[in-house]
Design brief:
The chain contains nine helices and twelve strands. With 280 residues, it is an alpha/beta fold. The protein has two domains: 123 residues, Leucine Dehydrogenase, chain A, domain 1 (Rossmann fold, 3-Layer(aba) Sandwich); 137 residues, Rossmann fold (3-Layer(aba) Sandwich), CATH 3.40.50. It has a six-stranded mixed sheet with strand order 2-1-3-5-6-4, sandwiched between helices. Strands 9-8-7-10-11-12 form a six-stranded parallel sheet, sandwiched between helices. Bound molecules: NADP nicotinamide-adenine-dinucleotide phosphate (NAP).
């Protein structure tokens, strides 16, 4: 699709929002595709999401991404919710349709799985037990996509057991919520470990997870991307495990947004990744 007569607009609504790396990656694609357009950080206070989303169409925006604290609230505002977003209970991407109505979707799980497959193209979800740490929004995206991809066993550990039990109840399938104290032993025989908690992120504590029982063949991935190598990933790499950092999830979730907004399939390139990694 070409856009000769239009200045293309999209953005990310959050509060706060200035830390977001999304403008950098989307504006890289505008340059790559030689398109006149801009992706903006949109600082939207809680309580003002409704008017902000309703402004997208009159202002000529093709859509926007949503980040903390707007992902759940948007469910009440958009005109239609895509099935994945409905199941997840959160919207990460809003598309303005031709008739100015708003479609809410969620591309976080897509981002996670494509980052993993980008790093390890032959990877299969049914290769062995999967351990997921955490049960917040990120965990919902990761467990849903892993289940859809054929995971046979997902051991879910969260500090607050009731939250992981709710996730198990919502999604069912291969997911079992297990007590937090059992997380270290729960790594036995695992083929993949995913940290979806905020632990390991700059300014937060480190994730308390002893890797002794984890097979050396397992992949360890983190959805935290600041820093690019979390203490968990550093410890896993030091003992010989393969690792995937959280940046790929952020980069890949942006691809379906571009398809929806502009009818273009952009690529995640090594140059783009290096450009953003240099800022982490
Ligand atoms: N790479 C990406 O594209 C991407 C996408 C989404 C999120 N993320 C990152 O993933 C992280 C989580 O995001 P989220 O949206 O899932 O957050 P969230 O919904 O607030 O969930 C936070 C999770 O972290 C756990 N947690 C917090 N403090 C903890 C502690 N001291 N010890 C153990 N567990 C703790 C929480 O456990 P409780 O339930 O017990 O509170 C919960 O499971 C953030 O760092 C975010 O930036 C990255």
């Amino acid at each position: 699709m070409s856009h000769p007569d239009q200045f293309l607009l999209a953005g990310v609504m959050g509060w706060p929002v200035m830390h977001s790396r999304s403008p950098m990656l989307h504006n890289y694609w505008f340059e790559q595709h030689k398109l006149a357009g801009r992706y903006l950080p949109l600082a939207i206070e809680p309580g003002k999401l409704g008017p902000a989303l309703r402004s997208l169409a009159p202002l000529g925006f093709s859509g926007c991404n949503l980040t903390i604290p707007h992902k759940e609230k948007a469910l009440e505002i958009v005109d239609e919710i895509a099935p994945t977003a409905k199941k997840m209970g959160a919207i990460s991407c809003v598309t303005v349709r031709k008739d100015s109505t708003l479609l809410g979707s969620n591309n976080d799980g897509y981002g996670y799985i494509h980052a993993l497959l980008d790093a390890f193209p032959g990877w299969k979800a049914d290769a062995g037990p999967i351990v997921v740490i955490g049960s917040g929004g990120g965990a919902r995206a990761v467990t849903m996509i892993l289940s859809e991809r054929g995971a046979k066993e997902i051991r879910l550990f969260n500090r607050t057991l009731t939250r992981s039990q709710t996730l198990q109840r919502d999604f069912g399938g291969p997911i079992t919520a297990l007590p937090w104290d059992e997380r270290h032993n729960g790594l036995e025989g695992a083929a993949l470990v995913v940290n979806t908690t905020s632990q390991g992120m700059v300014g937060q504590g480190n994730l308390d997870l002893k890797l002794d029982k984890l097979p050396k063949t397992a992949i360890v991935s983190d959805i935290v991307y600041i820093p690019k190598e979390t203490p968990l990933l550093a410890a896993a790499r030091a003992r010989g495990n393969r690792t995937v950092n959280g940046l790929g999830m952020l980069l890949h979730q942006a691809r379906p947004a571009w398809e929806a907004w502009f009818g273009i399939s952009p690529k995640v390139t090594p140059e783009m990744r290096a450009m953003i990694e240099a800022t982490l």
